[in-house]
Write a structure and sequence with these properties.
Layout lengths: L14 E6 L5 E5 H15 L4 E5 L4 H13 L2 E5 L5 H11 L4 E3 L7 H4 L3 E3 L18 E6 L9 E5 H15 L6 E4 L6 H14 L2 E4 L5 H7 L3 E4 L1 H11 L3 H7 L4 E4 L6 H11 L4 E6 L3 E5 L13 E2 L4 E6 L9 E6 L6 E2 L3 H6 L7 E9 L5 E6 L4 E4 L2 E4 H9 L4 E11 L3 E10 L6 H11 L8 E4 L20
Parallel strand pairs: 1-10, 3-4, 3-5, 5-6, 9-10, 9-11, 11-12, 12-13, 24-25
Antiparallel strand pairs: 1-2, 7-8, 8-18, 13-14, 14-15, 16-17, 17-19, 19-20, 21-22, 23-24
Helix pairs in contact: 1-2, 5-6, 7-9, 8-10
């Protein structure tokens, strides 16, 4: 049986993990040191079924998760910023038998009652022999809970392994790569792709805390992972730092995910660094579904083609008006086995013939890449008899020099059914509303223009930089 983390069985002579601390110092472990520390902790975890990991952005989180994987114990990574009610729900639902944490970190209320195991970076142990079954659960990762209490997506070891391997094929990811990112460690992006990924490849990870241009340039990455908010701010900073821009441009790949990167930021980053950003698409329940290949010419506005062994279909929407939009449904080896303790929600998330319904709306580009236009619940606007994707309008708005950020929603309207309302963060002094409406109408069909523009200082976002449209006023 192929090990999930083969490099830890015969540790190569190189750094495995390096993390920037809050004080600005770096803490690192070689592969041999990681095998020793994680092996020692794995011995303490033996016999348990499930453990919580207080997923601070630290090397201790990476070691704790590695130990759980070595021990064959399910890891439940927890956002350290969860509110007490939400944290109480997750702990009660997942019923962890212990919590792993960095020494000295105060455990929030619901975790304080659990047996605590501190992650000791200097501990000495050996990697357990034997590999758990491929269908054993590796992670239970909780969704954001935008439509109710968070649900725990159950992800197996084989799902994680197959997904990382398919991405490695798409991105030509090898043990020679140094991945640098500054992502949270309680989501698929930062944890499974960003920690398990490099360790499975036998490469190196440097977590720099924030995607600061000088820190990123000094790290000399070959791979960079980020979310659009990070890349937008990076582009801003690089405008006045050509030296860092040139150094970052020596990377092999910049990869963006978790939300759409705007065409404007695509162009800015390419101009500043000489690199074209690759995008990919996935969900907690599915891991990564599509990705732009390292060998492909990037196509802004799309998230690439399906990964090896992953199937994606677009189911036509009722009353399709010829736009080519469809509900994105998927199946493949990277999908979750269900929501923990929620067979009802698991069944509701699948079609009658067994495909997972992502809740996203998409269309195929001429090249065969998937383009996403938004979420069916919040981003498919039905106005004047048309079905309109909010993402297309947002991208058009962002091409205006006076727009820094944009979020488009449908608001109930007695005449149109829904009218298009754009919430906009301006660059400097806000442009005239009519100027933005006319700008969109010039780029897109007239029925896609906003009927109203509302200016705001900031858009509500979650920890991964995704705009939370449910928090935007609809009245």
């Amino acid at each position: 049986m192929t090990p999930l983390l083969p490099a830890l069985l015969d540790p190569p002579d190189r750094t495995a993990l390096r993390f920037r601390t809050r004080e600005g110092d770096d803490t690192e472990l070689s592969y041999a040191g990681l095998a020793s520390a994680a092996g020692a902790l794995a011995a303490q975890l033996a016999g348990r079924q499930r453990v919580a990991v207080l997923a601070t952005p630290s090397i201790h989180t990476a070691v704790g998760v590695t130990a759980a994987l070595l021990a064959g114990v399910t890891a439940v990574p927890l956002n350290p910023k969860l509110g007490e009610r939400e944290l109480g729900h997750v702990v009660g639902d997942s019923a962890p038998e212990a919590v792993l944490a960095a020494p000295g970190v105060t455990l929030p209320g619901p975790l304080a009652a659990l047996p605590r195991l501190d992650v000791d970076l200097a501990a000495e142990g050996t990697v357990p022999t034997g590999e758990p079954a491929p269908d054993a659960t590796a992670f239970v990762i909780y969704t954001s809970g935008t439509t109710g209490p968070p649900k725990g997506a159950v992800l197996t070891r084989s799902a994680v392994a197959s997904n990382v391997d398919a991405l490695a094929e798409a991105w030509e990811w090898t043990d020679a790569d140094l991945l640098v990112h500054a992502l949270p460690l309680f989501h698929v992006h930062g944890l499974i792709l960003g920690v398990v990924g490099p360790l499975r490849r036998g490469g190196r990870l440097h977590h720099i805390g924030a995607l600061d241009p000088r820190a990123l340039a000094a790290a000399a990455p070959t791979l960079v992972f980020g979310v659009p908010t990070q890349y937008h701010r990076l582009a801003d900073a690089l405008e006045d730092d050509p030296e860092s821009a040139a150094a970052i441009g020596r990377a092999r790949l910049l990869v963006s995910g978790s939300a759409a990167l705007t065409a404007v930021d695509h162009a800015r980053l390419h101009r500043l660094t000489g690199l074209a950003v690759r995008e990919r698409y996935g969900l907690t329940e599915t891991l990564i579904l599509t990705a732009q290949r390292a060998s492909d010419e990037p196509e802004p506005g799309t998230v690439g083609r399906p990964l090896r062994d992953t199937e994606v279909r677009l189911t036509p929407l009722p009353g399709d008006d010829g736009e080519g939009l469809g509900a994105v449904e998927v199946r493949g080896p990277g999908l979750f086995t269900g929501y923990l303790n929620r067979p009802d929600a698991t069944a509701a998330a699948h079609t009658a013939d067994g495909w997972f319904a992502t809740g996203d709306i998409g269309k195929w580009s001429a090249s065969g890449a998937l383009a996403l236009v938004g979420r069916s619940a919040t981003d498919l606007i039905k106005s004047g008899g048309y079905k309109i994707g909010a993402g297309e309008i947002e991208n058009a708005l962002l091409e205006h020099p006076g727009v820094a950020e944009a979020a488009v929603v449908g608001v109930p309207d007695p005449d149109l059914g829904e009218r298009i309302v754009a919430h906009v963060v301006a660059v400097g002094e806000a442009p005239e509303e009519k100027e933005l409406v006319d700008h969109v109408a010039t780029l897109l069909a007239p029925h896609k223009r906003p009927r109203e523009v509302r200016f705001t200082d900031a858009l509500p976002r979650n920890d991964m930089g995704k705009v939370q449209k449910s928090r935007l006023p609809r009245g």
